[in-house]
Write a structure and sequence with these properties.
This protein has two domains: about 100 residues, Response regulator (Rossmann fold, 3-Layer(aba) Sandwich), CATH 3.40.50; about 150 residues, Response regulator (Rossmann fold, 3-Layer(aba) Sandwich), CATH 3.40.50. The chain is built from ten helices and ten strands. The longest helix has 16 residues. It is globular.
């Protein structure tokens, strides 16, 4: 789109596994640099940017429920200084439950690993619970809001005798994906994940928006804003491409048989 880093655009990045105040501090740092637009990944980062500026445009990426989180008025007419691309978690939540039901016949209890401090995870959990009730499956929440809580959450979940696991999209959780995948493998628990980066370290299956495509959609909005558009006039978009990835090596190690119909629907099967 004509933007070349270090020639006509400068990109300043901040990353953290910390909580809301750390995110707000990062947002304040960027604000002091007089940036022209914020790009925020996830609900906590978007709320942090919204807290520090009501004027600089904010383009959000992978937001569970932009309206429910109080980030925009409506998807079609965001108002204010925020717009972006949602993650369509309501649809994804039902898909995760469906995947586990197909892979684990007779499953009655699912464990959801999330971050109770992340508003998006609370919203996602409600959708998963609703999908579970529709299929006669109970869903329990196990929270890890800090890095040192991940192992404890896994151990508590194991004692609850769940038969399958759903792992949320969250920075704290994702930063420990290898630990989570290895623990679930040792416990012989099948899991559905938000991102394929879990599959790359041995996870069983993932379903969610294609992150490269999310990035492209976001770049289009950044380009429009830098050329004069205002966030209030740009509707919040839905992801345009989703992907299902299945790891057959992991399925075999867990003693699972993946139904052929599910393999045919997969975008990628790792063998």
């Amino acid at each position: 789109m004509g933007w070349t880093e270090r020639q006509n655009i400068v990109i300043e990045s901040r990353f953290t596994e910390g909580g809301a105040e750390v995110l707000r501090n990062h947002a304040r740092d960027l604000l002091a640099l007089k940036v022209d637009v914020f790009v925020t990944y996830g609900t906590p980062a978007s709320l942090a940017a919204k807290d520090v500026t009501a004027s600089i445009p904010i383009v959000m990426v992978s937001i569970a429920d932009p309206v429910g989180a109080g980030l925009v008025r409506t998807l079609g007419r965001p108002g204010g200084n925020l717009t972006g691309v949602s993650a369509a978690f309501e649809d994804i939540a039902g898909k995760w439950v469906e995947l586990l039901v197909e892979v684990v016949p007779g499953i009655a209890r699912i464990g959801f690993i999330g971050n109770a401090d992340n508003p998006a995870n609370k919203i996602t959990f409600r959708h998963i619970q609703a999908a579970g009730r529709a299929r006669g499956v109970a869903v329990d929440y196990f929270s890890a809001a800090k890095a040192d809580e991940v192992q404890r959450a896994l151990e508590v979940m194991l004692k609850a005798s769940v038969q399958g696991v759903i792992v949320a999209g969250d920075a704290v959780i994702r930063s420990h994906r290898k630990q989570i995948v290895e623990f679930l493998a040792s416990a012989r628990l099948p899991a559905a994940y938000f991102g394929r980066d879990y599959i790359d370290v041995g996870g069983l299956m993932s379903y969610g928006p294609n992150r490269h495509e999310l990035g492209r959609q976001t770049a289009v909005y950044v380009d429009k804003i830098l050329k004069g558009a205002t966030p209030a006039d740009l509707p919040v978009e839905q992801p345009t491409k989703f992907e299902l990835v299945i790891n057959l090596k992991t399925a075999k190690a867990l003693g699972l048989t993946i139904p052929p119909s599910l393999l045919l629907r997969a975008d990628q099967v790792l063998e």
